Inverse folding.
């Protein structure tokens, strides 16, 4: 029996109503077209989810022959910044390829790589491409410069859950870029290291092969974003027979710590699970481990 969308929307509404801040979500089943939306059109900050549009513009310029993914970009003082990532810890002069910077920007949300790529592709060109592709409310306002951004993450970038989910739908269904570019973007997003938001309560393991676990077919390509009191995630979630996109944002969490247990992050995880179950994911149980696999996982 199909899940009742009204019941799922009501459950999501209760999650947001009991949260001290605000929340919004947009999700769409790519097979049936069914949508789950709560506060989906409200403007929000994006935090690092804006790195997906930057990646899209990069690949658009690659397709146009303007950028070579193999070209080297050196680490320098001009692109240094703080926040997430690893390059802030390394020495000037190191050279990485454009593709390496793109990978770091997504899988560990590296802010230094992000600045390198913004300088390469051009901030206004990111916004122009988003508008041309049908996402005019998604706007990158400046490089990652925390003194300039100040306390309000909207000074970095803005969007809405509906547009963020729409961007993921366009990547998944082929309405933007060429097939090779879309596949490369989703492959990078599928190597995401931050899995405590949309994937948080889902039976998903990126390490199933390394651990010798059975494959339940679940795949997630996502990009998180975080700021003091704000969390966001955009994702393509799929398993055999089902594909859906989701974007969830929470803002105004009074707990401003950067740790996995912020209520805003847990709300995103619970909302994600409600939508996962609504689209039939509840039947996608984690495969049981054999005794040998349990020993391997425990390090025995």
């Amino acid at each position: 029996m199909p899940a009742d969308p009204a019941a799922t929307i009501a459950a999501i509404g209760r999650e947001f109503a009991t949260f001290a801040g605000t929340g919004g979500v947009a999700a769409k089943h790519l097979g049936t077209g069914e949508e789950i939306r709560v506060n989906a059109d409200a403007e929000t900050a994006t935090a690092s989810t804006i790195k997906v549009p930057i990646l899209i513009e990069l690949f658009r310029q690659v397709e146009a022959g303007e950028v070579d993914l193999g070209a080297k970009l050196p680490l320098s003082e001009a692109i240094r910044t703080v926040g997430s990532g690893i390059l802030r810890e390394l020495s000037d002069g190191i050279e990485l390829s454009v593709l390496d910077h793109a990978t770091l920007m997504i899988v560990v949300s590296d802010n230094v790589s992000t600045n390198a790529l913004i300088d390469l592709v051009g901030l206004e060109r990111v916004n122009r491409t988003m508008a041309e592709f049908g996402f005019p409310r998604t706007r990158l306002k400046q490089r990652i410069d925390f003194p300039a951004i100040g306390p309000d993450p909207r000074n970095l970038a803005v969007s809405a859950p509906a547009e963020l989910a729409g961007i993921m739908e366009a990547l998944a269904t082929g309405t933007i870029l060429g097939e090779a570019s879309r596949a490369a973007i989703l492959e990078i997003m599928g190597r995401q290291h931050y899995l405590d938001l949309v994937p948080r309560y889902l039976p998903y393991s990126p390490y199933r092969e390394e651990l010798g676990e059975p494959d339940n077919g679940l795949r997630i390509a996502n990009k998180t974003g975080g700021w003091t009191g704000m969390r966001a995630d955009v994702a393509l979630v799929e398993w055999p027979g089902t594909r859906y996109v989701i974007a969830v944002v929470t803002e105004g969490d009074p707990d401003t710590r950067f740790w996995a247990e912020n209520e805003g992050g847990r709300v995103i995880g619970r909302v994600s699970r409600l939508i996962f179950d609504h689209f039939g994911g509840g039947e996608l149980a984690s495969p049981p481990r054999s005794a040998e696999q349990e020993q391997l996982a425990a390090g025995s």
